[in-house]
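Hi R.,

Here's the chain you asked about this morning:
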Amino acid sequence: MLEGAKSMGAGAATIASAGAAVGIGNVLSSSIHSVARNPSLAKQSFGYAILGFALTEAIASFAPMMAFLISSVFRSKKESFSFASTSFFPALVK
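And here is the predicted structure, written out as tokens:
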């Protein structure tokens, strides 16, 4: 049951990348429209478009991070993680 809930949560967190794709499309289409209306402000409009693209992409980078946290970091007590496990530090475990 817990594994299914974690998979659903990771999938829901990944859906945010679709919203980021729509946001990037809106930023770039607005940039094209603004340059078409006023070509003399093309450099300033390009700077704003790059800023909008970067901020939207930064938000999109949180989606895989949340999916990773949901699927691997939040574990049940049966699956507890230890840095002294044999797979990471075999010399520490005797």
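One quick note: Helices lie at 2-14, 16-37, 42-73.

Cheers,
M.
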